[in-house]
User: Which sequence fits this backbone?
């Protein structure tokens, strides 16, 4: 009976209720999307392996390391495997077609990154072809590339056109694996550099090593850095997670702004719902007074008002959450190459639900207080 | 007036005033009144005389500044708000001038509303509602919303709602004030029947001398003071 009263009251002014539900839905949608974008920013951090370490030039990431370090690092106690990769920064046709592309030591790289799943035939073809490359599934879909297609990158860091043949299309082992990257042979890069700019040849952007256990990481990192202390190119070794986190930290201010905007959205919708509830209850103050007259106490009246608030917020919240998935799919079509992982996490869903509950509770608080404290004779006197 | 029936409402020397800004406005001063069980009492007086305030005090909607009000064995002046709410739910039926039905509930649901606070099962509640709907002759309108009913019918629904918990007291504030003459007559006949046939104690505030004539006793209030009592010819039931 009270449930019936609550539901009918919630949608008594249909237009107002529907607009409020719509407002909550848009707020939850925006909150969910922004949270997912923030998560996407951290996707590289989340996907980082605990037992992989990244070694870079201690001065800056823009300074490369001599390739000769590779064997010295391999010899460090605790290092199980090593590879290297160099940011190539090539452009495909137009600058707007941005995607990450790296020159890698192909064999060791594929061994070190088992999360990039490549069919054996394609793997062999890639390893055999010095001018071959592998691309992620999402990237291939984006540009309509197929195996054996020729892709030409225009160098920005390394001048000239760099034609290469797609020898394989990998897919991610995990949801968080980036499928928007291109990897080609470092040998191809190095060969040309030897001719065009010999001083830049025989260098790698970073080395990536694998240690047997994550616990061994600090000791190995210390040993590697100690090895090159006081050399021309000192190293800085950190976990892959810390390395990725370094990139995220650069955008910390933007992330903070996004988080702030999320909170502001929730605060705005809280005010909107509170306004709806206050108006709705004020219009029916004499009805609540009648219920009080009939013996309904504060608990029942609070339940009725809170229930109304919850119904409106839950309806909006459900719509917003349901709308987040298709909206993110559409968004991924536009920014998928920047944010390869745009999945709504359970944490985001949890925060969506929490935000909806908080909005409902706070929006109901003022009218509940009003109804519970108002004297019956005053409330009845408002209309009589 | 029969004297072998107990006093159900015992009001002793109550006063009530309201504050408006810095001004204190006395509404009732030293009112003492006894109402016998089963009596149909009309409270009359000009606007602002304090009759609705007195009714509110008797019904436990407000507290007097001084004096005592007892209904049955219960001293209302000592009860807290929550206790008063529970007491009202069990002992008082309200009939308002403007019916005060909940517009989103049907006539049946409006009548059922006070029973939600009781321990009755859903089936028992429905039986009670059907009984009082029959009593006010509105069984065929039970699924209608208030907006689909005439003023007289709405007031009969309100009376049914007041009756459904079988309260000790029925209090009515200008129950015919918003009705045409025919509908007012129907409502008054009904209230008279409730007193006569069911033995309900009815306290009615009214401006209408015709309505007051239905009562067994009429009390006049003027400027917060009971001026005189007029006793109507003793009804057969008392």
Assistant:
């Amino acid at each position: 009976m009270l449930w019936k009263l609550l539901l009918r009251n919630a949608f008594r002014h249909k237009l107002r209720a529907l607009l409020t539900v719509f407002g909550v839905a848009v707020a939850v949608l925006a909150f969910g999307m922004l949270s997912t974008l923030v998560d996407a920013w951290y996707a590289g951090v989340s996907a980082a392996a605990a037992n992989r370490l990244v070694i870079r030039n201690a001065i800056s990431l823009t300074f490369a390391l001599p390739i000769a370090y590779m064997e010295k690092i391999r010899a460090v106690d605790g290092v199980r495997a090593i590879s290297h990769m160099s940011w190539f920064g090539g452009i495909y046709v137009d600058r707007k077609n941005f995607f990450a592309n790296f020159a890698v030591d192909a064999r060791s790289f594929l061994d070190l990154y088992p999360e990039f799943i490549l069919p054996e035939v394609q793997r062999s073809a890639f390893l055999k072809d010095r001018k071959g490359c592998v691309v992620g599934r999402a990237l291939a879909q984006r540009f309509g590339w197929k195996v054996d297609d020729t892709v030409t990158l225009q160098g920005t860091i390394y001048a000239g056109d760099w034609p290469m043949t797609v020898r394989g299309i990998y897919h991610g082992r995990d949801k968080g694996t980036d499928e928007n990257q291109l990897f080609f042979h470092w040998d191809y890069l190095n060969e040309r550099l030897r001719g065009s700019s010999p001083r830049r040849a025989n260098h790698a952007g970073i080395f990536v090593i694998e240690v047997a256990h994550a616990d061994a990481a600090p000791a190995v990192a210390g040993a590697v850095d100690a090895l090159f202390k006081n050399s021309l190119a000192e190293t800085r070794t950190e976990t892959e997670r810390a390395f990725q986190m370094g990139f995220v930290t650069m955008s910390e201010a933007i992330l903070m702004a996004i988080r702030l905007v999320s909170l502001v959205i929730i605060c705005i919708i809280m005010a909107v719902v509170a306004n709806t509830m206050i108006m709705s209850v004020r219009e029916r103050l004499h009805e609540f007074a009648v219920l009080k007259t009939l013996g309904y106490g504060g608990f029942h009246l609070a339940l009725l008002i809170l229930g109304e608030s919850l119904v409106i917020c839950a309806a909006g919240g459900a719509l917003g959450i349901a709308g987040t998935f298709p909206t993110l799919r559409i968004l991924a079509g536009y920014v998928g190459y920047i944010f390869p992982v745009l999945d709504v996490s359970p944490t985001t869903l949890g925060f969506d639900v929490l935000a909806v509950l908080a909005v409902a509770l706070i929006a109901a608080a003022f009218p509940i207080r009003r109804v519970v404290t108002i004297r019956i004779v005053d409330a009845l006197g408002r209309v009589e | 007036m029969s004297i072998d029936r107990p006093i159900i409402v015992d009001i002793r020397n109550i006063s009530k005033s309201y504050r408006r800004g810095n001004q204190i406005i006395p509404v009732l001063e030293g009112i003492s009144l006894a109402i016998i069980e089963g009596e149909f009492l009309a409270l009359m007086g000009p606007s602002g005389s304090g009759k609705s305030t007195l009714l509110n005090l008797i019904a436990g909607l407000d507290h007097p500044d001084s004096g005592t009000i007892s209904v049955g064995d219960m001293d209302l002046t000592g009860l807290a708000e929550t206790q008063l709410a529970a007491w009202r739910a069990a002992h008082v039926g309200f009939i308002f001038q403007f019916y005060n039905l909940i517009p989103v509930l049907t006539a049946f649901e409006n009548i059922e509303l006070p029973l939600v606070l009781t321990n009755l099962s859903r089936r028992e509640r429905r039986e009670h509602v059907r009984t009082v709907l029959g009593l006010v002759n509105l069984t065929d309108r039970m699924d209608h919303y208030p907006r689909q009913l005439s003023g007289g019918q709405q007031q009969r629904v309100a009376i049914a709602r007041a009756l459904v918990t079988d309260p000790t007291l029925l209090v009515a504030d200008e129950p015919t004030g918003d009705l045409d003459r025919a509908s007012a007559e129907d409502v008054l006949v009904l209230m008279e029947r409730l007193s006569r046939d069911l033995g309900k104690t009815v306290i009615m505030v009214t401006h209408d001398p015709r309505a007051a004539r239905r009562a067994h006793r009429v009390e006049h209030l003027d400027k917060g003071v009971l001026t005189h009592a007029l006793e109507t010819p003793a009804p057969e039931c008392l």
Chain A has two domains: 2-43+252-381, 59-233. The mean pLDDT of chain A is 91.
